[in-house]
Design a protein that fits this description.
mainly alpha; 5 helices; 78% helix; elongated; Myb-like domain-containing protein
């Protein structure tokens, strides 16, 4: 009796499958010839000593390729969404900072208008030229700028952390691929 235990694709099998697909280009077969081309891919892989699966069919090869393709597309879409979310958050942070700066300036303008000189008359020209008010305005603007710089610094640190994590993941993926390729070379 034949052992019909299900066997999963290994990374090496996936690499061989993808290499063979690139070489044979089964998806370029004309009308009615596509499955014949996939069968050629399956036959080539079945004949290979490096390929660990037995009796690969055209449909299995095609389905595995479609699954790998869908997984890659999903990962790329997720990365794009993450990038878009970061850009949206950055825009929102800038808008909030601009709004807060506007609130500070409005508040200072209201305070300046509400102040009156001791005689009770409002002398806006004199009050606007007061060095004390200019110093306060400069201090508020300086504090606002410091807060904005701190927000940028935090955002930069977060982006740096994300880039380092992505780079580490990329290196790990590359290392796994190199291990698979090393195994392939050693088997030859």
């Amino acid at each position: 009796m034949v052992d019909s235990k299900r066997k999963n694709f290994t990374d090496a099998d996936d690499a061989l499958l993808l290499k063979q697909i690139i070489a044979d280009e089964p998806y370029t077969g004309g009308y009615g010839k596509v499955m014949e081309r996939w069968q050629e891919v399956a036959d080539t892989l079945n004949a290979s000593d490096e390929f660990s699966r037995d009796n690969l069919t055209a449909k299995t090869a095609q389905n595995r390729f479609n699954l790998l393709l869908a997984t890659t597309k999903r990962r790329l879409v997720d990365e794009h969404r993450h990038t878009q979310a970061n850009a949206k958050e950055e825009t929102r942070t800038k808008a909030l900072a601009a709004e807060k700066a506007g609130e500070v300036v409005r508040e200072l303008a209201i305070q300046r208008l509400n102040r009156r000189n001791p005689s009770g008359d409002e002398d806006t020209l004199k009050s606007s030229q007061s060095p004390n008010k200019f110093a306060k305005l400069a201090e508020v603007l300086r504090e606002h700028k410091e807060k904005e710089l701190e927000l940028r610094r935090e955002k930069w640190e977060q982006e740096r952390h994300d880039r380092l994590a992505a780079e580490a993941q990329r290196r790990e993926d590359q290392q796994r691929l190199m291990q698979v390729l090393t195994l392939l070379v050693e088997k030859k």
